[in-house]
Design goal:
Two copies of one chain form a homodimer. With 192 residues, chain A is mostly helical. Chain A has two domains: 12-58, Arc Repressor Mutant, subunit A (Orthogonal Bundle); 62-190, Tetracycline Repressor, domain 2 (Orthogonal Bundle), CATH 1.10.357. Chain A contains nine helices and no strands. Chain A starts with 11 loop residues before the first helix and ends with a helix. The relative contact order of chain A is 0.10. At the A-B interface, α5, α7, α8 and α9 of A face α5, α7, α8 and α9 of B. Chain A binds a DNA duplex (30 and 30 nucleotides) through residues 1, 3, 6-8, 12, 33-35, 43-47, 49-50, 53-55.
Chain lengths: 192, 192
DNA sequence: CCGTCGATGACAGTCACTGACATCGACTCT
DNA sequence: AGAGTCGATGTCAGTGACTGTCATCGACGG
């Protein structure tokens, strides 16, 4: 039986993530030490590194979830659709995931954009997403090079739509902005 | 007057870059300490950090040069061309820059692909390139969102063409592969 | 009641990176 | 020539991210 509380407070991982986002927001990423994060979460520095590989990773716990959502949407798409349309399904699925979390996404993004190391980590997460996407397309029978390009293009659309969603007020939805960016990509590349 | 040799051997920066690439190749990036790099270059650890901001940056000295080349090509393009065609000029200019340095590029890329931190750094350099490109397009009168998308798409093409150039033997040129990737991008995005 | 297990604490150690100050050949000015 | 400045480097002490190792102790199964 799980009791409400054992030897320790529950959800150490979540407490660390919350404390980290708060401190990164208050003092800035560089001015925050891991020991401080752990202390605010009622834990020790060593325990922080048992839950997160490094000081940056604590902001990217949702990346795996996002990737899975994306890949699932692509996998479930009808086999007849063109690669970029399939990727678009992934984009809309991702857009849904964020609808309830705008407040959180904004704070998080402000922290990430304020530090180069964090931007690097963000970029490699997006690259990982792109790779997973390309792989999924390949399994659907899309040619290697086409798959890579469709995935890269899709992730580029995601980046730009997300950026605009954060910059825009509450009135725009991520799904709308995704659609607009996608249309724009098509316009840009069709004129050649 | 510059004498052949003053108090120190010349080109400390270059010696550090050479030593770093060698050691990263021999032992791997993580197994190499900055002190070892400095020692091989006949310098001290402190001096390494006077020339390069961190242990990764020593592999990316050419990034600024690449960005300048790219931006210059885009700036010089005829004003009448479509955004993606303008970006394509930058791609071909970049392709030229690498023709003589395939050997070096291969070794460097092998090291980078072997380590996640180095891949992160590579990605942020490409993001910086994309931002510079978008900015240059904007100055040419291209709309904000179109500029970002054209720049992102162009960099995606560069990434994929470069990857294939490294993977392919000597017989393929980067310019050829760039053209192919660009055509493929147009094919993928036009079918929607 | 006993033994195992899993999450955490405690602690020492390595290494990336920084700030402050010393060194010393080159170069300039007179 | 001598004095003073300057720039690139060396030296050294320090911080903080991250790791390996062992100890602790409640939960849980027997």
């Amino acid at each position: 039986m799980m009791r409400a509380m054992g030897r320790w407070e529950p959800d150490a991982r979540g407490r660390l993530a919350k404390a980290a986002l708060e401190l990164y927001g208050e003092r800035g990423y560089e001015q925050t030490t891991v020991a401080e994060i752990a202390k605010r979460a009622g834990l020790t520095e060593r325990t922080f590194f048992r839950h997160y590989a490094d000081k940056r990773e604590v902001l990217f716990a949702g990346a795996v979830e996002l990737e899975n959502l994306f890949v699932a949407a692509v996998t479930d798409a009808p086999g007849s659709e063109a690669p970029l349309d399939v990727v678009a399904r992934g984009l809309y699925a991702a857009a849904e995931m964020f609808t309830d979390r705008r407040e959180f996404a904004c704070r998080r993004q402000a922290v990430i954009m304020g530090n180069a190391e964090l931007r690097e980590r963000e970029l490699i997460k997006l690259a990982s997403l792109s790779a997973a996407l390309a792989d999924t397309l390949r399994r659907r029978g899309v040619a290697e090079s086409t798959a890579s390009l469709a995935a890269e293009a899709g992730v580029a659309v995601f980046k730009i739509a997300f950026e605009r969603w954060i910059a825009a007020g509450e009135e725009r939805t991520l799904a709308e902005l995704t659609r607009e960016s996608l249309d724009e990509l098509r316009a840009v590349t069709s004129a050649g």
